[in-house]
Amino acid sequence: MRDVTDLSCFGWDGCDQGLLPAGTAPARVARIDRGRLTVLTAEGELRVVPGTSLHASVLGAPAVGDWVALRGELAVAVLPRRSAFVRTVAGRTSTAQVVAANLDVVLVVDALTVDPRLRRVERYLAVAWNSGATPVVVLTKADLCDDVAAAVAAVREDALGVDVLPVSSVTGAGVDAVRALLGPGRTAAMVGPSGVGKSSLANALAGRPVAGTREIREDGRGRHTTTARELHVLPGGGLLVDTPGMRELALYDDADGVDTAYADVAELAAGCRFRDCGHRGEPGCAVAAAIAEGRLDPARFTGWRKLQAEARRQLLRVDARARAEEHARLRTRFRAQRELPNRPRVGR
Ligand SMILES: Nc1nc2c(ncn2[C@@H]2O[C@H](COP(=O)(O)OP(=O)(O)OP(=O)(O)O)[C@@H](O)[C@H]2O)c(=O)[nH]1
Ligand SMILES: [Zn+2]
Domain 84-242 classified CATH 3.40.47.10? Predict the structure, then answer.
């Protein structure tokens, strides 16, 4: 049995660092429902009211998995996060949304029913790497796949440095391997498109229905069943965040995550003759050479380029300062071009 004081700070390192405002107790956000928070405390679940100061905090609104400081039944502050899975809210905005906070593991979930969608997995991995938590790929519905080993191998080849675990929530195969990631006090979030079996996996891990699942409609269109993010406490003391399926995961500030997810391509690119090589046929392009020699899948290269461009666009939208820097960079480049020796100098 874990002792109660232990639970009150479990997973949050700020307690012993004196980060807790005086007269408050830490609690973990399990659910957010029309502005009200359900939190886990040493005494159990509690519905609390967000104080006005809560939204004023630099971390913004609380997310599932956040630690908040409670003063009575009022949540007064969002406590420092050690990791967060962040996406851009759908639409042409630059608003960041914290999907889940204080994670040890991000489970990137996809199904084995169709050919593994490698580009999609890579996109999730880029964001997951940037979260500060460890990404793991979970491939569900193994019972519906004829050649699990081949499908897993294909994903493993692309998901560099990431464990790839096949599971079936129906037969239970592979569920223990996922459970092993979720020791006492460890928090994982499942992310992935709708219908890949996240809720079914949550139920399999919990050993009881904790999340709503849906039957896929005959026409394959289906509807989202998971409507809210929720932090579930698993029997072994691990914590699992179930998130509603995402129609599209837009990158936020994920340039570093992209380079980690595509470490092989990034490393090749660093070996190009020109530092600013665009890999579009320049001489000495190491990326082009790798593609020509069959060492790099051109589709993976295209995926990298696309995500990099998206991360850069997003950065420009988000950060006016970055925009100024980009302008400065373009100006420098322009100046450098003007000063190329073989360029006729005008007006001098
Ligand atoms: N055969 C088989 N079917 C599964 C498995 N896991 C999930 N399913 C089915 O796939 C469908 C979708 O599963 P859900 O768990 O609701 O998917 P989800 O990812 O939570 O979907 P959202 O809540 O919309 O994000 C349901 O019909 C499940 O019964 C599995 O391991 N094997
Ligand atoms: Zn190049």
Answer: no
